[in-house]
Design goal:
The protein folds into two domains: 2-125, NAD(P)-binding Rossmann-like Domain (Rossmann fold, 3-Layer(aba) Sandwich), CATH 3.40.50.720; 150-311, Dihydrodipicolinate Reductase, domain 2 (2-Layer Sandwich), CATH 3.30.360.10. The protein has helices at residues 12-21, 42-45, 62-66, 80-89, 106-113, 120-125, 131-139, 149-163, 193-196, 210-222, 257-264, 314-328, and strands at 2-7, 27-33, 70-73, 93-96, 127-129, 143-146, 172-178, 201-202, 228-234, 241-248, 271-273, 291-296, 303-310. The strands form two sheets. Strands 8-9-7-10-13-12-11 form a seven-stranded mixed beta sheet. Strands 2-1-3-4-6-5 form a six-stranded parallel beta sheet, with helices on both faces. The protein is α/β, with parallel strands linked by helices and 344 residues long. A hairpin with a 6-residue loop joins β12 (291-296) and β13. Helices cover 31% and strands 20% of the residues. Catalyzes the NADPH-dependent reduction of N-acetyl-5-glutamyl phosphate to yield N-acetyl-L-glutamate 5-semialdehyde. The active site is at residue 149. Residues 3-141 form the Semialdehyde dehydrogenase NAD-binding domain. Keywords: Amino-acid biosynthesis, Arginine biosynthesis, Cytoplasm, NADP, Oxidoreductase.
């Protein structure tokens, strides 16, 4: 049985970890922390977990966390890097759902997150947490920087095209939409019902914190720096990311794109390449760890349009983190992640 600690259990990714781990046959949550909710039973804050987790929130304590096999950080940026070095030194495997260990260029990270990074040496050792890209490295890793939500949807959509060098890597456009839960559980005027409902709003077009992470990932896949325009939007829904991805083929009469995607993801348990002509919907992945993808070549011309949908809290965060834990501890990759998406 894998003993699990969770730092930051009151946000959306924290409670999603609790939901998924409640039905995991080989993992047990031993510690869950929250400074503001110390002493409060988890089930009192989240009644959906009644009968599943008999545990109370405690303040973060390194000694208690060090008794776990793995510790998840479901925290804002800047938190994991303050505790991860000691946990790793004491033999605990760490999975950070935040951004502290995703970007390898420390100076770039500090620019986008407006913080001084306190353990740059660990960043070099951390493995980027996207299983479809780094499965073998994840298995032996001590520290994981779990891929972000937008970066997951975008990278999985572009991966077959860039690996095969079929498209112009300098001309990539990612037009992405996210539900309001992507902004976190903290109170914000922009995500109030009266502000977000019945409206679609672009944000972060001049620059979004996920941009350098996506560029880093796509550049690694393409084996050269990519040119990327990334435009995120807020949608009037709770969960989900829809990424519409554009690229230009070097040769419009090249390989069969449908076959390319089906072959690349044939053995991936959480990527579903849909039949030709499909238009995946966010509701088809709600509550599940699945990424559904379709690929189009409109009018047979040189533009490729890839549609990629995920649940931002599952495959875009907590589900991906559990998938990573399964790989790290040599457990069946689907363990705790067999949920069928909720429809309607």
């Amino acid at each position: 049985m894998v003993k699990v600690g969770i730092v930051g259990g009151t946000g959306y990714t924290g409670v999603e970890l609790l939901r998924l781990l409640a039905n995991h046959p080989q993992a047990r949550v031993e510690v869950i922390t929250s400074r503001s909710e110390e002493g409060i039973p988890v089930a009192d804050m989240y009644p959906n977990l009644r009968g599943h987790h008999d545990i109370t929130f405690t303040v973060p304590d390194v000694d208690r966390l060090a008794a776990c096999d793995v510790v998840f950080f479901a925290t804002p940026h800047g938190v994991a890097m303050s505790m991860a070095p000691e946990l790793v030194e004491r033999g605990v495997r760490v999975i950070d759902l935040g951004a502290d260990f995703r970007i390898k260029d420390i100076e770039l990270w500090e620019k986008w997150y407006n913080l001084k990074h306190t353990c740059p040496d660990l960043v070099a050792k951390a493995v980027y947490g996207l299983p479809e890209l780094n499965r073998d490295q994840i298995k032996g890793a001590e520290l994981i920087g779990c891929a972000g939500c937008y970066p997951t949807a975008v990278q999985l959509g572009y991966l077959p095209l860039l690996e095969s060098k079929l498209v112009d890597h300098r001309r990539l456009i990612a037009d992405c939409k996210s539900g309001a839960s992507g902004a976190g559980r903290g109170a914000s005027v922009g995500t109030l019902l009266c502000e977000a409902s019945e409206s679609v709003k672009a944000y972060g077009v001049p620059g979004h914190r996920h941009l350098p992470e996506i560029r880093q990932g796509l550049s690694g896949i393409a084996e050269r720096p990519v040119g990327l325009t990334f435009s995120p939007h807020l949608m009037p829904m709770i969960r989900g990311i829809h990424a519409t991805l554009y690229s230009v083929l070097k040769d419009p009469v090249g390989p069969d794109l449908q076959a390319l995607f089906e072959e690349r993801y044939r053995n991936e348990p959480f990527v579903d390449v849909m039949p030709a002509g499909s238009h995946p919907e966010t509701r088809s992945v709600k509550g599940s760890n699945m990424c559904r993808i379709s690929v189009h070549q409109p009018q047979g011309e040189d533009v490729v349009v890839v549609l990629s949908v995920i649940d931002n809290l599952v495959k875009g965060a907590s589900g991906q983190a559990v998938q990573i834990m399964n790989l790290m501890f040599d457990l069946p990759e689907r363990s705790g992640l067999e949920q069928v998406a909720l429809m309607p």
